[in-house]
Amino acid sequence: MNVRYAFKRSLPVMAGYIVLGTGFGILLETKGYGVGWALAMSAFIYAGSMQYVAIDLLAGGASLISAAIMTLMVNARHLFMEFP
User: Fold this and answer.
1) Where are the alpha helices (DSSP H) in 31-76?
2) Calpha distance 80→78 (Å, rounded)
3) Could you give the CA distance from residue 30 to residue 6 in angstroms, rounded to a whole number?
4) pTM, entire model
5) Where are the domains of the chain?
6) What is the widest separation between alpha-carbon atoms in the chain?
7) CA-CA distances (angstroms) from residue 29 to 11, 12, 41, 71?
8) pLDDT tens-place values along the chain, 84 residues long
9) Which of 1, 2, 15, 51 has the highest Cβ tally under 10 A?
10) Degrees (nearest 5) of the Cα angle 13, 16, 20?
């Protein structure tokens, strides 16, 4: 497969990721966290929607147990996607 062809085909998805990533970075910065936090959260948090929830959890001083429960609740939606 040609790299040029793959790049053209992935442009719509990449555009979405750029918009969501920019919004995440802006929101994280308004809460007082820097680029290092954004990179770490992007590397370690697998669920993209949980990154947005984690911003408020960090800013609000949530406990580890409440963050874990919230993560389970946010990601429980995947259970319904796997079993039609």
Assistant:
1) 35-44, 48-60, 64-75
2) 5
3) 35
4) 0.74
5) 3-82
6) 48
7) 27, 26, 13, 22
8) 699 999 999 999 999 999 999 999 999 999 999 999 988 988 888 777 888 999 999 899 999 899 889 988 888 887 887 666
9) 51
10) 140
